[in-house]
Write a structure and sequence with these properties.
Chain lengths: 336, 336
């Protein structure tokens, strides 16, 4: 069970999930995650070890063998049994139950194949599964949005090497997303345009930070990237939510995702990275003000006191330099 | 020279400082900082090596030898020569020169003595120097606030082992601070109280997250701590800015800072940490809505995709458990 507490100084909620710490802080190492199995043999995400995960939520199967598998996170930050009713303690500090869903999406049965190297068809199955789970969780009226993300590499906070994604459905819209929605709504009210679509057109016009594009998607490194090699994938046509991606567009989305990850992998030598999907809150799926987008954040530098204290990012690489570097690095042929 | 670019999606500025990256990204390792000298012999912050730093800005001297020394950062994120005038490129993306100050405050001549182990008198000299530099920089009307911070340990982004603090004076108020000021102003307008003073009184009343206190300062782990063992030091009496700390209070402030750092050091085995001072923007020093505070953030866990994507923190240790753990860990006698 977890609890959420309200931070009055920033107006956001903090998730407290002590169960994610496997052992007490009797020494300096506050281990937040189980350590990685040395080989595929002990991996709970590998075929044959299904009994080591909590009961399966969903799977794509092919002749009996699963190709993509969804299970609850064994050390969940949020749980569906918790109660999101707001309460106060004796000193008027506000809290609620850590109500939500926390799922793990196992990318493929392969323990070591990197997402960029998977066949396009496998990436399509994965993306469709993410969308299916998102839509399914939105049927629970307590969940206000879904945050889809992937951690790759120890520096990015990965606990298990077997490639996987995660999905958290919190009972509040996280503050950073609220802020992005607010800025985009203001822009829409002022201009009648989607801020992100507008930025995309200006990036296409500038044509110095575009990494790759296809019929339905564009990948670029934004003008004000917060970290070196931050890369976004956005739909070319306006669409507020990943929930609305049409079945016939998934092949294009899988292809551009593979292409971006391969370029980063090749040029930067398999960097650790986080990938997140920014989306709208419940009920805004049809709105004009926001464009869902994937953000890929390589973990090449360490934020320090200034960044933590001020929230302001210091980036050591201009995105147009990073885009040029990625484009020049030998591009690996896409296998589909 | 650096440049700042405006992120329209979050309404904050990003600092681009390519000079902080010493070598090009020809391979995977984007080194942002010079590597640490193996011993004090090659340390630019040690006495005798003064020629290896840029020209001294200020120093406290005692019989000719310096005790605290201030120099410009050799790889500054912001420089005083840059022009903060806002400009637009051909696609209407907004930028300005990276105008500001970036200074390094060398804590003491000692290469390896940890701040918590310094005599109180030395910590007083350090704190007075920080205040002096803050006040001095505020005379330049282009700088909107001063962010004072310290990084300890490689995981906290330290580039040099010799204990030091840093100070950045940016030409805009960073967005996270603006947000904290906004929340506190709203609270003040609604209640007529300082949010932080009010929280402090409720923490003193609850008395389960107080770490230590003395005549003028209180150290506690806030109710909605964002990271395990996050600890704040706040003045007991309302005071909006660190610039206003009275000369006769510095001994109390030095004593509580030493005490907190020693407790963290002992209980957690010399953890990496960041320390920042949150303060008001230029001109608000006399205001009622905000209380300056030190935040000490041990780097015990790695923020991953969910935290980066949503801005929401997942904390694996309740602050009252952390406070109890710190209090129970053998408390080292303060040497003054």
């Amino acid at each position: 069970m977890s609890v959420m507490r309200f931070d009055e100084t920033t107006s956001d909620w903090v998730v407290f999930a002590p169960s994610r710490r496997l052992r007490p802080h009797a020494d300096a190492s506050l281990q937040t995650q189980p350590s990685e199995p040395a080989s595929a043999a002990g991996c709970p995400f590998c075929p044959g070890n299904e009994a080591f995960t909590p009961p399966e939520i969903y799977a794509v199967r092919d002749s009996g063998a699963w190709r993509v598998r969804v299970v609850p996170n064994r050390f969940p930050a949020l749980t569906i049994e918790d109660n999101p009713q707001r309460r106060h303690d004796d000193q008027a500090f506000q809290f609620m139950g850590g109500c939500g869903a926390h799922e793990v999406i196992i990318e493929s049965p392969d323990h070591s194949l990197f997402l960029g190297q998977q066949p396009t068809e496998q990436v399509v199955l994965l993306l469709r599964t993410l969308q299916l789970r998102y839509r399914n969780l939105m049927r629970d009226g307590r969940f206000q949005t879904v945050v889809i993300f992937k951690n790759h590499g120890a520096e990015a906070g990965t606990s298990l090497a077997h490639p996987h994604w995660q999905l958290l459905a919190p009972p509040v819209v996280p503050r950073l997303l609220r802020m992005k929605h607010f800025e985009a709504s203001e822009y829409y009210d002022r201009t009648g345009q989607c801020l992100y679509c507008d930025m995309l057109h200006r990036e296409l016009d500038a044509n110095v930070r575009i990494l790759t594009q296809n019929e339905h998607y564009v990948a670029f490194l934004p003008f004000a990237s917060h970290t070196p090699f931050e890369t976004w994938i956005v739909p070319r046509q306006h669409q507020a939510s990943f929930q609305l991606v049409a079945m016939e567009h998934f092949t294009c989305l899988a292809a551009i995702l593979k292409s971006v990850l391969l370029k980063l992998h090749t040029a930067l030598g398999n960097p650790a990275f986080n990938l997140t999907i920014d989306d709208v809150p419940r009920g805004d799926e049809g709105k004009e003000y926001f464009l869902w987008h994937m953000r890929i954040l390589p973990r090449l530098t360490t934020p320090a006191g200034f960044e933590l204290g001020s929230g302001m990012s210091i980036n050591t690489v201009l995105p147009e330099d990073a885009a040029r570097f990625l484009s020049e690095a030998s591009s690996v042929e896409e296998v589909g």
